[in-house]
Amino acid sequence: MKNGFSVFIAAFIALGASWCGFVLAPLLQLGTAKQTAVLVSGDTYPIQRTGDATLGLQVYRANDCAACHTEQIQQSGVAFDVVLTGLGKNPMAVRSAIQETCELIYKDNPKDKNLYDMLVEHLSPEQPFSPATILNSVTKTIADSASDKITAAGGKVETHLIPTGADISRGWGVRRSVAADFLYDSPVQLGSQRIGPDLADVGARLGNANWQLLHLYAPQSVVKNSAMPPFRFLFEIKKIDDAPSPEALNLPKEFAPPAGCEVVPKPEAKQLVAYLLSLRADAPLYEAPFTPAQVSTNAPAK
Amino acid sequence: MSDDPKISNPQPDAEPTATRSTVPMWIFSLTLVLIYLGAVYFDHHGGWFDAKVYGPYASADQLDSYQPKSGAAAAIARGKKLYEMNCGICHGVDGLGKPNIAPPLAGSEWVKAKGVQRLTHIPLTGVSGSIMVENQPWNLSMAAMGAALPDADLAAVLTYIRASWGNGMGEVTADDVKAVRAAIGAHPQPMIGDQMMKMPE
Fold this sequence. Notes:
The complex is a heterodimer. By secondary structure, chain A is an alpha+beta fold. Chain A has helices at about 5-30, 50-60, 90-105, 115-120, 140-150, 165-170, 200-205, 210-215, 220, 265-280, and strands at about 35, 45, 75-85, 130-140, 155-165, 235-240, 260-265. Chain A has 2 domains: about 35-70 and about 170-280, Cytochrome c-like domain (Cytochrome Bc1 Complex, Chain D, domain 2, Orthogonal Bundle), CATH 1.10.760.10; about 75-165, CATH 3.30.1390.10. Chain A has a 3-stranded antiparallel sheet. Chain A has a two-stranded antiparallel sheet with strand order 1-2. Chain A is flat, with a radius of gyration of 27 Å. By secondary structure, chain B is mainly alpha-helical. Chain B folds into 2 domains: about 25-65, no CATH class; about 70-200, Cytochrome c-like domain (Cytochrome Bc1 Complex, Chain D, domain 2, Orthogonal Bundle). Chain B has helices at about 5-10, 25-45, 60-65, 70-85, 90, 115-125, 150-165, 175-185, 195-200; strands spanning about 125-135, 135-140, 190. Chain B has a 3-stranded mixed sheet with strand order 2-1-3. At the A-B interface, α1, β3 and β5 of A face α3 and α4 of B.
């Protein structure tokens, strides 16, 4: 072949460059990833899975759950809420500072007029003070300038960071998925098609093991019109001998087994559910920060 | 023999060869524009190959500026953790206390006091003897559980106690703790219950 050596070198460089970009660089970046610290609380994240949940990942893989479910929440941006937590020593000055900043922002948007009126009523001197959201879903610049103005007047404010995006507004998670979420997954079950919902945060979203078992045995018994096929082979239908098993599913009538029989989950079903419940991407991390809801409120003692 | 085969069936000239011609300018321009647009896109979305930077964040600097500030919420979250490690065993993670072990903190007038000096004293020196909490006598003794905690950590615990379980009181700063610790001195003695009862808030 004419110029065979040059063609070989060119092909080698082209393939080598993409290998460096797609294999070597990610390995250098994430190959030695370790547990990280959760923001604010300093807890360790992620926690190693229990034995059942580790086996459950293999059940998830064996049943090809990743064909219909992804495990990656996406995020398109961030928004900021400004929350007034204290009026300080000069409530009058704080109130007028709030009025000034909020009027500027809410003025152009008639949709926010109601919000603004509610805020004014909430902060009126006759009302006893309680924390209030002053600005909802604004940019960082607006949030910072508002919080500077109110702090200068003596008030106390907190700026809350809220991730935004289609997945998050669907309620599939609170922040985007990052590499740390998959530290103990082998192999990682990212998935690419969303015939069913995303499962990256399903343990936090649907944390009831009984619900998960019912859903695996008969999806339509808990989610009407679900497109998910039933996974009945993960369960055993057996005759009730002396007393019903404590593990038997409590199914609605149209899904219940024949009289005298009960549905008991096999170990695989329990492992898969343990794995699903271990899927929680709800810790704020450095690379995916957010302000957890209600960090500073505890239920009052009764 | 006038028929010349060359005329009726002419031989082609020599084999054609490619000639060099200059690349048109528009290809150069297009390439430059594409490189420029690629560089701009990379600058906005690439995060400069930082393993910690994911979309929608553009750079490590932006991500840094978005980190939650360590405000009252952070202190309370930290205080909750420290409380559950140091205090929760006796006073309960719900702050309700345990009979014959520790008095309640939820709704206690000792916690809801206006000043923080007396409250700060308790974990720094410990208490022994009878005190009244919510009109109930508690005759127990508590060790100086907070004496080993740094000022900022003890302040976080006290802030958590004061903010939680409907107590709704304000924050305790590290300076408050530092002042009380300085007033106590290097060798704290457990406060006797009567002394503690008389102490100003």
